[in-house]
Design goal:
By secondary structure, the chain is mainly beta. It is built from 3 helices and 24 strands. It has 2 domains: about 160 residues, Porin; about 170 residues, no CATH class. About 25% of the residues are buried.
C-alpha cells in the first residue's frame, strides 16, 4: 500500500526494527512534532562554493539509538581552511554542514540544515555540532564523540565513533536493473524494481554515484519518462534521471524499489524500461550506462516478438544476476532484437 515507506516508517521504525527493538515513544515524538514550523531563510542553508570539487568519502559510525554500526556514503569539500560535508543526516541526505580546519582539527558549529517533509508537513532539521580530527592529507576524518541532529530538541541522528575515509571510485559499467512488477492499487500504477549497486561483473559500486532512468515504449516508439512537478507534488523540479538514494517520501522509494507512474496515455504503452547510470568524478565526469531492461505491459506486445528477430537471449534472476539458460524458478528472459532493442518477459521453469 502506498505511503508505507515514508519517512516515519523508513527513517525510524524500519531502522529501529533492524536492531530488533521498536521504540514507539521516539516514533510518536516525531509524529507529534508540530506541522507548522518557522521556515528559515534560504541564506541560512550551507552550500559549498560552486566550483569546489566534491569528493566521495565512506562513512562508518555507531548509531547509539539503535545500537548498530552503519556505513554509507558522504561527500566532502575542502576549500582552503573551510570544510563541508554532505550526507551526515539520514533524514536530509542532501544537506551540507560547514566547519573550519585548524591544526588538524575540523570544528563544525551547530547549524541549521534545512527543511524535510513528511506527508506534506515541513520540519526544521538542526545539526548540533561536531569536532573531527583530520589526518595530513585529509583522507581520513574521525570524530570519536560523534554528533547528533535534532528537530525542535528531539534527537534524530545520533552517532559516535565516526570515521570518514576518502574513496577512490573507478568507472564501471553498472549491472542491468530489472523491473519485477508493474501493478496498481487504490493510489495508482507503480513499478517494483531491483537496481543492483554492482557492476556487470558483480563487484560492488558506490550507490551515491548510481542513478536510474525510466523509458516508455509506445508500440515501438521509445521515449524517456519524465518525473514532473505536476504529477510529483514533492519534487522541486522535473527529473528524468533519478539518483539511486533519492526519495520524495511519497511516490519514489530509495533505490527505485517502488515508484508510482503517471500517464494519460498509459493504455498506449507496450513496455516500460529501466537502465542504470554510473558517474565517476566531479569536475571531469565519466559516465557509463547499463543495458535497458524492458518489461512488457500487454500480452499483444509479448506475443508479437518473433523468434526470427531475436539475436541474443539471456536469463536473470530477480536480483539482476545473470544465470545459466538451464536455471529453474522465476526468471527474467531478456531478448536482444535485430534493431538493438531489448525485450524482457518473466518465465517460470
Amino acid at each position: 500500500m502506498k505511503k508505507i515507506t515514508l519517512l516515519l516508517i523508513a527513517g525510524l521504525v524500519a531502522m529501529i526494527a533492524q536492531a530488533g527493538v521498536i521504540n514507539q515513544d521516539k516514533a510518536a515524538k516525531l509524529q507529534n512534532v508540530k506541522a507548522s514550523v518557522a521556515m528559515k531563510a534560504a541564506g541560512d542553508i550551507v552550500t559549498p562554493p560552486a566550483d569546489a570539487e566534491q569528493m566521495l568519502y565512506s562513512f562508518n559510525g555507531f548509531d547509539t539509538y539503535i545500537s548498530q554500526n552503519k556505513t554509507f556514503e558522504v561527500f566532502v569539500v575542502i576549500d582552503n581552511n573551510d570544510v563541508y560535508i554532505k550526507g551526515l543526516s539520514e533524514y536530509l541526505t542532501d544537506a551540507w554542514v560547514k566547519g573550519t580546519i585548524a591544526d588538524g582539527v575540523a570544528t563544525f558549529p551547530a547549524a541549521y540544515m534545512g527543511v524535510f517533509e513528511f506527508w506534506g508537513d515541513a520540519y526544521d532539521l538542526d545539526f548540533d555540532g561536531a569536532v573531527f580530527t583530520v589526518n595530513d592529507d585529509a583522507s581520513v576524518l574521525t570524530a570519536p564523540d560523534g554528533y547528533t541532529t535534532s528537530v525542535e530538541g528531539e534527537v534524530l541522528d545520533e552517532f559516535i565513533n565516526v570515521t570518514l575515509t576518502k574513496a577512490l571510485p573507478e568507472i564501471a559499467t553498472p549491472a542491468t536493473p530489472t523491473i519485477t512488477d508493474f501493478t496498481e492499487d487504490d493510489y495508482g500504477h507503480y513499478v517494483l524494481m531491483n537496481i543492483p549497486a554492482k557492476d556487470v561483473d558483480g563487484n560492488d559500486i558506490f550507490a551515491a554515484l548510481l542513478s536510474y532512468q525510466l523509458l516508455i515504449d509506445r508500440n515501438g516508439e521509445q521515449s524517456v519518462y519524465e518525473f514532473t512537478t505536476d504529477n510529483y507534488e514533492f519534487l522541486e523540479e522535473n527529473m528524468t534521471v533519478v539518483p539511486y538514494n533519492f526519495t520524495d517520501y511519497y511516490d519514489i522509494d530509495v533505490a527505485g524499489k517502488q515508484v508510482y507512474i503517471y500517464g494519460d496515455d498509459m493504455d498506449q504503452w507496450s513496455a516500460i524500461g529501466v537502465k542504470s547510470i554510473y558517474t565517476v568524478g566531479d569536475k571531469s565526469r565519466e559516465t557509463r550506462e547499463s543495458e535497458i531492461f524492458w518489461y512488457q505491459l500487454t500480452p499483444t506486445a509479448i506475443n508479437g516478438i518473433s523468434a526470427n528477430n531475436v539475436v541474443e537471449t539471456n536469463y536473470y534472476d530477480l536480483q539482476g544476476r545473470k544465470v545459466d539458460a538451464n536455471a529453474t524458478g522465476l526468471l527474467i528472459k531478456q531478448m536482444r532484437m535485430q534493431d538493438g532493442s531489448v525485450k524482457a518477459v518473466k518465465v517460470m521453469r
